[in-house]
Amino acid sequence: MLHATLLGFALSALWWLLSGFTTPLILSLGAGSIVAVVWIAWRMDVIDHESHPLHMAPKGVLYFPWLLWEIVKANIDIAKVIVQAKMPIHPQVMDLTAGQKSDAGLVTYANSITLTPGTVTIGVEANAFLVHALTDDAAAGLASGDMDRRVSAMEGMSSRDGDG
Amino acid sequence: MALALDILSWAAIITGGAFCIIGAVGMIRLPDVFCRMHGVGIIDTMGIGMIILGLALQTGFNLTLAKLAMILIFVLFTSPTATHALARAARYGGVEPQLDKPAKKETDQSNT
Amino acid sequence: MFATAAAAVLISMLLALIRAVRGPTVYDRILAVNAFGTLTVILIAVHGYLDGRPEFLDLALVYALINFIGTIAVTKYVSLSHLGLPTKDDDGGDI
Description:
The complex is a heterotrimer of chains A (164), B (112) and C (95). Helix content of chain A is 59%, strand content 12%.
């Protein structure tokens, strides 16, 4: 129920940001469509802790700025590699073991790897990732496990704590 | 104040445009499809991020700013998913990455 | 300022198109079209500012949605030859 209410609030914010209307008729139409969407989502049984990973929110505030900074650094490294005439790349494939327990944590980790230029997750099986790295530096940075630890810390609690 | 914002905006837009072009050049120069994904990754993060930052600095605090932020967040959330789906499809379709060194521990090739 | 951004994006789009035409595999082409779509999102947003009409951002948002769905759909279609549902012996069904 908590998740459904939050979904309703989030949809209301999104609706108002996209439309910007304040006339009563349009607002009531918007409210009607939000209720319909929440009802359909509830019937589809997709409202749970996995689609709304609330337990990640407090630590996520710390994680995402760090991720953004990592992305900027990696971007500059890879851009330097690409513009050099010799293009010193060492494409390689490495295996990683992810330490996250919940699916949402694993998805966050895999997407963070892909979002950082220089490393792309090309295969996932349970918690074993297959990662394609463009340079030795990118591979070494990932193999140090810093990102893994941070995502695990953000995940915090395991998937059992979700309520309906 | 307005001048400072203009300068920052110029800097962000030029950086973003440069990263877009570098990413696209990478897409031309890099040797195989898995390497080219890194080039697309540059466009999808730094290119769009810096250009949207530059546009945001030219906007006041209003709904337009929220829309810009939504575009950026949406692209940042979806582009890794699309890249991963494509990488999976490429491996499923029999494209093997060109490697400089052999994989440290070879996983099974049975299309995970 | 906005014209500079538009020019940079157009150059990148041209390079992406070259990759899309040259291939060599179908996955290179999908990748190039995906990047082209992202650049189109930027171009639409920049065009809104160039024209003094920020309403264009709505179009950019919708284009970002369509680009994502389109890439996933084409990827599935190429790898499975159908958009299909996962079946028992179809290993790639849940891409």
